Amino acid sequence: MNRKPNIVMIVTDHQLHYRHGWDGGEKPLHPGFDALAKDSVLFERAYAVTPLCGPARRTLLTGLYPHHHRNIHNQTESPYDHEIYLDKLSEAGYRNFYFGKWHAGPGTALDHHAEGFCPEFYGNPYITEEYKEYIGRKGLPPAEHSIERYFWNNSSKKQFRELYEGNDHYHCTHTWCGEPCVGITTTPKETHEGYFLADMACRQLEQLAREDGQGPFHLRLDLWGPHQPYFPTQEFVDMYDASQIREYGNFSDDLSNKPGTYRNMNRPIADEQFKLIIPSIFSWEEWRDIMVKAYAQTTMTDDAARLVIQKLKELGMYEDTLIIWTSDHGDGLGSHGGIFDKGSFMTEETVRIPLALKLPRNEYGGSRMNNLVNSIDIAPTILDAARITFSQPIDGESLLPVCRLERPGRTQMMLESYGQGYRDTCMSRTLITGTHKYTVNEDDISELYDLERDPYELHNLKDDEELAEPFRRMLGDELEQLGDSEGMALLDG
């Protein structure tokens, strides 16, 4: 087949780690992703390049580490003085469509040869004219939520306390929709942003089907969920039995021998200096109730994304389309002493991500790979499928040769963080190998974990100098190869 394949990419936000429930307890259900994985190459050792949204999303566009694209914090608005794959696809004759969250720097996808719906910065779909048109067309009310818990810092407590506390009729009318809340969506599930975005994407696919022969397209769906607020509908909550959610493996971690960045949290689980209270002020029974909402939110987001896959099948587009389903980063919920949200630390919960590649004609469908891959590899994979490349050097490599067993995977890989950019400004560099994880943290202790023997990262082996030194050298080699002068200085320090 000579025609370039159509490309569909689905990106969830803040995805709960697969480890939840791996011990035989209740686990988050994602039947849409699982169904796609049966036809896909599933990468079981996929990582986010960084645990923060903005830097990770810029990497998804560029194939560059944050130390090269410089969009290093969520609030950073570094200029686009490097190529992004949307522009390159357009040059190659693709029509780009983008529906959903941006949060990757200045402007939006619509400034980079894409059509669709894409609010600036973090965005809030619920206050847009497009959402109002959608609920009007569907005969739906605006999304309404009943709030059970909320988490705050000094600035948000005063601003939102009256809105959040005990509010059974909450509507998100802010400029962003990332409220640190737990509750229930009391309106139909279709009022939730995931279904709104999926509807726009499906309608666009229908239009493209009517215009068959107009050239290849790339369509990207970027959901705001399952990032908090955890506001599932009761339908999805009822899929779970809280009593069957076993205590998470590092919930009782006392954070001894861990860097200070682990403790940077919001209240009420933190003290007045916003340091995580150990042991947690919530019992595991209370955390289970939060987990149920997060699990249900995961399943609801999956269900919305599934509609796009279903539409591709209905329209006869599925078989010859490259489909990539992944997430920007993970979620630390309930881990390492009882965390809500995450920080800039490099725990498996915050940096492990799902990644399934459904190749055209379902080549190698059902394959499972343990190759080390991360966010830097997504953009070059997309361009490789379109038979083009970036004209400037990048850090990532296409995964298509790996899927086809034409190239071996990595044996080691680096991740990085520059901290949150406000309370937490700790810079970190992490080396991942087949068995271990080694992290150097700015002005704080290092971390070394044996991921095979200690998957919950409870035992920091940093003081075993004979064990740690080879990993330190390997990290130095990675930093030097990647031209990361800041990382080298961190290692030297």
Concise account of the structure shown:
With 493 residues, the chain is α/β, with parallel strands linked by helices. The chain has helices at 31-38, 53-62, 66-69, 85-91, 129-138, 154-164, 193-210, 234-237, 284-314, 348-351, 378-385, 400-403, 465-481, 485-492, and strands spanning 6-13, 15-16, 41-43, 46-47, 95-100, 114-117, 145-150, 181-185, 217-226, 321-327, 330-331, 355-358, 367-369, 373-374, 412-417, 428-433, 436-441, 447-450.
Question: Can you give a write-up of this model?
Answer:
- This protein is of the alpha/beta class and 493 residues long.
- The chain is built from 14 helices and 18 strands.
- The chain has helices at 31-38, 53-62, 66-69, 85-91, 129-138, 154-164, 193-210, 234-237, 284-314, 348-351, 378-385, 400-403, 465-481, 485-492, and strands spanning 6-13, 15-16, 41-43, 46-47, 95-100, 114-117, 145-150, 181-185, 217-226, 321-327, 330-331, 355-358, 367-369, 373-374, 412-417, 428-433, 436-441, 447-450.
- The strands form five sheets. An eight-stranded mixed sheet has the order 6-5-9-1-10-12-3-13, with helices on both faces. A four-stranded antiparallel sheet has the order 15-16-17-18, covered by helices on one side. It has a two-stranded parallel ribbon with strand order 2-11.
- Strand 17 and strand 18 (447-450) form a beta hairpin.
- The longest helix is centred in the middle third of the chain and has 31 residues, at 284-314.
- The radius of gyration is 22 Å and the shape is globular.
